[in-house]
Structure formats: structure tokens, C-alpha cells
Amino acid sequence: MKLYNSGVYLVNGRDIIEEAQMTEPVSREDAARNTIAYSILEAHNISGNMQKLQIKFDKLTSHDITFVGIIQTARASGLEKFPVPYVLTNCHNSLCAVGGTINEDDHMFGLTCAKKYGGVYVPPHQAVIHQYAREMLAGGGKMILGSDSHTRYGALGTMAMGEGGGELVKQLLSQTYDINMPGVVAIYLKGEPRPGVGPQDVALAIIGKVFANGYVKNKVMEFVGPGVAGLSADFRIGVDVMTTETTCLSSIWQTDEKIEEFYEIHGRKEDYKELKPGKVAYYDGCVEIDLSEIKPMIAMPFHPSNTYTIDELKANLYDILDDVEKKAQISLDGKVPYTLKDKVVDGKLYVEQGIIAGCAGGGFENICAAADILRGASIGADAFTLSVYPASTPIYMELAKNGVLAELLATGAVVKTAFCGPCFGAGDTPANNAFSIRHTTRNFPNREGSKIQNGQISSVALMDARSIAATAANKGFLTSAEEYTGEYTGQKYFFDKTIYENRIFDSKGVADPSVEIQFGPNIKDWPEMPALAENLVLKVVSEIHDPVTTTDELIPSGETSSYRSNPLGLAEFTLSRKDPAYVGRAKEIQKAQKALQNGECPAEAVPELKPIMDAVKAQFPSVGKDNIGIGSTIFAVKPGDGSAREQAASCQKVLGGWANIANEYATKRYRSNLINWGMLPFLIQEGELPFKNGDYLFFPDVRKAVAEKADSITGYAVKENGLKKFQVTLGELTDDEREIILKGCLINYNRK
Q1: Which of 441-450, 483-492, 499-508, 532-541 shows the lowest mean pLDDT across its residues?
Q2: CA–CA gap between residue 546 and residue 306 (Å, rounded)
Q3: Which among 576, 308, 577 is positioned nearest to 437, based on CA atoms?
Q4: Which residues contact 48 (CB under 8 A, 6 or more apart)?
Q5: The whole model's pTM is what?
Q6: In terms of DSSP bridges, do strands 353-356 and 435-439 run parallel, antiparallel, or are they unpaired?
Q7: String of b and e for 728-737 (b: at least 16 CB within 10 Å)?
Q8: Is the CB of residue 484 less than 8 Å from the CB of residue 392?
Q9: How many domains does the chain have?
Q10: Do 576 and 704 lie in a common domain?
Q11: How open is the CA angle 556-742-666, to the nearest 5 degrees?
């Protein structure tokens, strides 16, 4: 795999020419307009300026962790009807074993909202969000915005993006998605995959190459080259969904007759569009991949970029396990004992669990290939278990019709319904100290459901369904699919949408204002949020120095998501697995802001504020309770990798958070979530911090600085010997984003 150090030209869709070697009389600017990405973005941009995009999406989609909060936000902002098709899926449904009626209450909220505002409602167990979108929503040259980070349908010719709920709210209110024109990086494929290599292997190889260096961060990955033609639609989809883990903005692929056949199989041939780059196209970078060189891969805990070939792992087993254990102690803050070396039996790595599931693993071809490898085998009667989750009921039905379901069940595997649970910790949580291999999207700490604060820790490695099946056939001992020498049957897929026609509510875009929304007792409105004050006094209530902090650490998924429709209830879990003291610290200083809002003295509510305010007023005598906001902030080196769930930001906000301070934000979507919840996305230079956890910070004239677009904002750490000055920046903000921050959040911005 080769990463080019400069931009490249792609000529006739096949020939890569480095920028310095280009001799054809074409400008870089003209050639940049010949990418597939440019043409789609241009068709959806209403700004008239291709450097400052204002995008209107064709369709929207959300699942049941996010749609309640999104619709509640939109309702508070004046929503009357869905202006574009909006699909509400319920693939994160069986969230936990506790919670009473709250799970199904949220589903009924979704169904009645789909009726009232003119949407589509997909009941639980019918389809995971992204498979339904592939089957029923995607279209050539279209754009889809989803509130799940893995909203990626590029293989089908649809540019899709996963963002926090605030960005979907804007679309529901007929506003725009505002970004600078992103860079476009060519992912140039050549050759063909060797037998036993699946889409997860290709994806992990790419992620391992580009994540750490940020090669495609916030850019569009455009898959081109002669190698694309040799990949099936399912294979391309399996690679594409994992592009999220590179931190790219979106993805798009050249399309051909195989994608046309996909649409035809799904009864939507008219939605196919041939997409390919122009005769000479310019890309801001290029990743050149010879598919024949990729071997079965494994991403070891605790990140999809922690990649090795399975052969490499087996050959250097103890060295790699030792390295993983050392890295784990950083991720786990040394809070729990952690080892993988105890999984080595007679020189072989033993695995306790295999999972093939969700938007990444639950595709038809993946499951059929796994069944081929397992045919006639047994997974054994020991600790190892294997669970398979087809990504939609139509896939499940076809597996039943063609006999694959029976073959899998005969091995001892368990085949379950369409559900994202294993991917985010709401199903199939392994035992303490267990090791799981999964064809899913992520393997972050705690994401599989373990709880460090309770002394419980298991871990996950990512692999392709084929090697998981080979491991299962070897009764849990790690095995590469390359060791399988049998035939792959290459089952043909037949899509039957009867179950969808029988079960899914589709308003056909017709709203019915007479419908009463069904609210459960746990569904709560967002609390009132004040506008940005002239000056801010902020207490640092968490300090995180991990290289990357994921949204799953900022707000854990799994059973906590049962409170997804209750902002204050969910906020109780903020940073609970990373910094359990955070919530208490944030709520304590929030008392001061509540006192301000009630016309009371904040220093009486929080006595430790008195010397802080005395120190501030000594240098800034005009500062008083009429012109300050008081609350909390956190520092993290690089927060926001992973999920698009806005709760990572909104939970901090409802606990009185006014800002994040970071060296860098891992993703655009997390930074956008902060902004949409009225939080300041401060940036501070790398190096020794001018403050520590527990310190108070003072930002004078911060409202003026935001409004007047100041390049740098002065802050002060309040120390025993006085105020110590430091500088932060906000990065680029649109005028609308500044106004959202000034008004306190997106709800306030839109409230009539």
C-alpha cells in the first residue's frame, strides 16, 4: 500500500500521475472539478460558492438512540413536517435488561412522529439502519445525512455522512449543512483479493495505514481504479462502511454494472447512476492498494487502527500481546488488571467469542462465506461461542430459503435478528477477561459492554467474517481464513421486500397533523439553556491525556442509552467509565449558574467561588453577577473519535458545561455537536497546560470575542498568586455557528 506525498492526477480512470510529473495542459483547479465527489457536492450546494458549501441532503436517517432527541430538538424549534424523507429505524432496540417500558415508549414516540410529520418507521428487528438505507434509500448521485457515524453508502454511488443530531435538526428546519469544500483523496484499487480475504481485511489494512497520520481526516475518500470492477457490491459495501474509522468526512465509489445489478435486485433499477471521474481528475492525495497483497487482518484492542496480519500476530504472538497489554493500561488508566497472554494455549491464541453482526458484518455474502467455511464443522462445547446477526430481515429470509441458516445452526452457532447490540455494548457482552473477535465496526474500550468502574473488563479484536468462521471451525483457536482450502459456493441473493411491505410504516411523505405524539414517562424536554454570557468563569472538572478520547468514553453506550430520551437522566452517565467523579464535580459548580439564573449569589451556592471571584474582580472590577456565566469545562488531548451521538456534547451541556478545551478535535462531527449545543470548542497549543483539573479559568469578554471573530481569546488560570494568562482559539466558525454559540444552543437559535 502506497501513500502519495502530494496530489495526483488520475487520467482515464486508470493512470496515476504525480503532480510534479504532470505534462498535460490542465490546471489543478479544473481537474479537481472532475472528481465524482465534486460533481455530487456541486449538485447539492446552494451557496453559489464551491469553497463555502451549504448542502441540502436528499434523505435523512436515524436510529432509536438518536431520533427522540433530534425530533424533540426540532419540535422545540418549530418543526411542522419533515421536508425530506426521514427514516426512523429501531436497530438499537433491546438496550438492556432494565428500564421498564422506556424502550418501547421511545419506539411508539417514533411511530407517532413518523405519522404526524410524514416519515418512515422501521420497527425493531427488521433491519439495521445502514442495511435498510442500502436496500431502500440509496441512489446514484444522491446525498444522505444520518445521525449514526457509519452513515456510508458510497459504494452505491451515494455520498453519505454521519453527523450529530443538531445537523439533522437543521435539515428538518430546511437549513443547510455548512462546510468548506473538503479535500478529495483517491483510493486507487488494483488487483483482486486472494481467497479467504474479505472486505473487513481490506478495510482494516486501509485504516491501519491512514488513521494515525490523519491522511484522510475530514476529506472524502473516492474509490477508483481497475480493482473496483473485481469486487462484488457486498464486498464494496463492507469496505465502505468502515471508512468512518479513518476519520474521513465521507466516501464515494465509481459505479458499474455490478452496482446497477444491486439496484435491480432490490427493485430500484431507476436509482442507479453511472459515476466515474472525468478524463483528467485531480486528487489531494492517493492511497494505492494492490488488493492481491492484502492478507487476513486483525485489529487488536482497543482501536480499529491497531492492525496486524493474522499471520504476523501468530508469528510474534507474545511480543504483540505484550504491546497490546501495555497500550491497554494507558486506555484503561491502569484501573483494572489486564492480560491477553493467558489466552495462549500450547502456543495458540484462544478466543472465547465470535460475532458476525451489524452494518459491517451482517451482509449476505459475509454470512454465506462463513457458512461455507463452517459446513460440516462444530464450534465445540467449550467456552467459545459464535453469534450471527443478519443485517436485515430480507437477508435473514434468504438465508432461510437457501439453507445457509440451517447449516449455521447445525454448527452450534446462534443466529439472531437484525440488531446493532454487539457493536455498541447492548448484547453479547463477553465474560470478564474474555477475548472476542468480531466483524463489527469498532473495538474501543468498554464498547463491548464491560465496566471498568465495576472491575469488569473484556476486549474485542476486529476480523473478517471468513477468519472468524475459520476460528470457529477450529473451536476458538485463532485461525486465518487462508487456511480454508474448500470452495466458496457464491450463493445468489434474491431480495424479497414482502416483510417490509407488511411491517414498515411509510407515510409516503404525507404528514398528518391530527396525530397525537405518544410520550412515555421517561421522554423529557430539553432543559432551558442560557445564552453565552459576557464573561465566563469555568471550573476544569476533568483532565484527560489519552492520545484519543472516543465518544463512547465521553458518554458510554450500551445500557446507558436506555435513558436516551431523558437528557438529565442520560447525563448522569457522562464520562462514567473514564472519569466517574466528573458528574459530581460538574453538578456542584452548576449550582452557581442556577443561583445566577434565580437572582441569587453564586458564591453562597458554591462557597469555594468566593476567593475565585475576589481574584477576578481585583483585576476586572466590572465583572459581576449580571455579566458572568459560571460552569464547567473539560480538557482532552483529542476528543471525539467514534460515534456521531450528540449526547457526548449535550450531556456536558445539561450539566453546565460551557466549553471543551483540546489540542485537536478528532472529528468534525464531535466539534459540530459542541457548537450546536452552544459550547465553545476551544483549541490550545500542545505542551504543558497552564491549568490542571480542579482549577478555575476566567475568560473575559468572551461573548465579544465570539461575535467579533477574534483570532485568539485570552483566558486566565486563577491561581493562589493571581491570574495567569494563556491563549486559546476557536478555529473557523461560520456566522450561523457563532450565532448558535451566542444564543446558547441550536434550540435557542431556532426558537421563534
Answers
A1: 441-450
A2: 15
A3: 308
A4: none
A5: 0.91
A6: parallel
A7: bebeebeebb
A8: no
A9: 4
A10: yes
A11: 35
Same domain, 122 and 188: no
Whole-angstrom distance, CA of residue 715 vs CA of residue 718: 10
Whether residue 568 is found in the same domain as residue 700: yes
Give the pLDDT confidence score for residue 98 in this predicted structure: 54
> Residue 329 has which C-alpha cell?
493500561
Q: Indicate whether 41 and 70 sit together in one domain.
A: no
Closest among 156, 165, 140, 135 to 60, alpha carbons compared: 165
Looking up cell 450539566 gives 655
Q: Is there a contact between 135 and 495 (Cβ–Cβ < 8 Å)?
A: yes
Percent of the chain with pLDDT over 70: 99
* Residue labelled with grid coordinates 469555594: 608
Compute CA 379 distance to the chain's CA centroid, rounded to the nearest angstrom: 32
In which element (H, E) is residue 42 found?
helix 36-44
Q: Which domain holds residue 635?
A: 535-750
The amino acid that residue 598 corresponds to is: N
Strand partners, 9: 17, 282
In a shared domain, residues 429 and 393 = yes
CA distance 243 to 222: 11
State which of 293, 318, 342 marks the end of a domain: 293
Give the helix/strand (H/E) hosting 704.
helix 702-707
DSSP secondary structure letters along 284-320: SEEEEEEGGG---EEE-TT-TT-EEEHHHHHHTHHHH
**Separation between Cα atoms, residue 142 and residue 632, nearest integer Å:** 41
For residues 230 and 114, membership in a common domain is answered with no
C-alpha triplet 136, 562, 518: angle, nearest 5°? 70
- Rounded Cα distance, 210 and 721, in Å: 46
**Adjacent-strand bridge partners of 299:** 307, 462
* pLDDT mean over 539-545: 96
- Phi and psi at residue 595, to the nearest 5°: -65, -45
- Is pLDDT at 727 greater than 50 in this prediction? yes
Of 424, 308, 410, 304, the residue nearest 357 (C-alpha): 424
Span between the terminal Cα atoms of the chain, in Å: 53
Do 546 and 683 sit in the same domain of this protein?
A: yes
How many Cα neighbours within 13 Å face the side chain of 373? 30
434's CB contacts (< 8 A; 6+ apart) are 352, 353, 383, 458, 459
